[in-house]
Design brief:
Layout (H helix, E strand, L loop, with lengths): L3 H25 L7 E7 L1 H18 L3 E7 L13 E5 L7 E9 L1 E5 L1 H7 L13 E4 L8 E4 L5 E4 L5 E3 L2 H9 L4 E5 H10 L3 E3 L8 E8 L6 H14 L7
Parallel strand pairs: 1-2, 1-3, 6-9, 6-10
Antiparallel strand pairs: 3-12, 4-12, 5-10, 5-11, 7-8
Helix pairs in contact: 2-6
Length: about 240
């Protein structure tokens, strides 16, 4: 039975052979129809709401290509797990990755109109300590909320959650039902904010925006089917209001 290292080596060899075949075809004018598998990853909510629909459109346009889209709220290693590209939210410090910028999102604090009517609206971050807090715990641990102070400097707000859950959707749903105040990424709550189910609060204390980008390995020049998906996703995602 092949080991993980063996599977990665086989995948890399197949990639090199495919890239070589495409380069020869391009050079001789004998480029073939794009075909084969592209593996990509994206955050759970953003991927489900925005990336997956675009991938479906891409498959209609390129019927000989298959896409394996893995949605997860953790950063997956493109090299170790053999992904061709990823959508990343936040600053990418890995210099082995090439980035194509798509826009920005930000961390926002929201609560339902009913909750704010019943419990009042916090005016400064320190007020949050006297409110019901709904916490998305991510990988199972609670983290401070990143905000800014009155001078615009970064501020970590440590809070005790009345309700903690490891899924962003569940945390946002609890806030929508009036269970407390939640901190989330702007795209995650955008539909509820636009519908009036949630209200952004403490907006003057929001931290700076987070970049959103498509990334791929600098040491692994994307073959044509991967480049096609990169171009398609970039064109579709850059027009999203949630990335403004």
């Amino acid at each position: 039975m092949p080991t993980d290292a063996g599977r990665r080596l086989a995948d890399q060899a197949l990639h090199l052979l495919t890239a070589y075949d495409e380069a020869i075809g391009d050079a001789t004018g004998a480029a073939k129809e794009l075909r084969g598998l592209v593996r990509c990853t994206a955050p759970l909510v953003f991927g489900r709401e925005h990336v997956a629909p675009l991938v479906a459109e891409f498959l209609d346009e390129f019927p000989a290509i298959s896409v394996d889209l893995h949605l997860a709220d953790r950063v997956l290693d493109l090299h170790e797990e053999s992904f061709d590209l990823a959508l990343r939210i936040g600053r990418v410090s890995d210099t082995s990755l090439i980035q194509r910028s798509l826009g920005h999102v930000r961390r926002v604090t929201v609560a339902s109109p009913g909750y704010l009517e019943a419990k009042g609206c916090p005016q400064v971050p320190d007020d949050l300590g006297s409110h019901d807090i709904v916490q998305h715990t991510g990988h199972g641990t609670s983290t401070p909320w990143l905000m800014t102070d009155a001078n615009g400097k970064s501020l970590l707000v440590n809070l005790t959650a009345r309700f903690a859950v490891n899924q962003a959707d569940a945390a946002i749903g609890a806030a929508r039902r009036g269970r407390g105040i939640v901190n989330a990424l702007s795209y995650q709550v955008d539909p509820d904010v636009r519908a009036g189910h949630l209200i952004r609060i403490l907006t003057q204390f929001e931290p700076e925006r987070l970049p959103v980008a498509l990334v791929w390995s600098a040491s692994r020049h994307p073959i044509r089917r991967v480049r096609a998906l990169i171009d398609f996703l970039a064109a579709g995602l850059r027009s999203l209001p949630v990335l403004g």
